[in-house]
Amino acid sequence: MIEEFDAIVIGGGPGGYVAGIRLGQRGLKTLLIEKDELGGECLNRGCIPSKTLISRVNIYWSARSARWLSGGDLKVNWGEIQAIRERVIKRLRLGVKYLL
Question: 41-100, which class in CATH?
Answer without folding.
Answer: mainly alpha
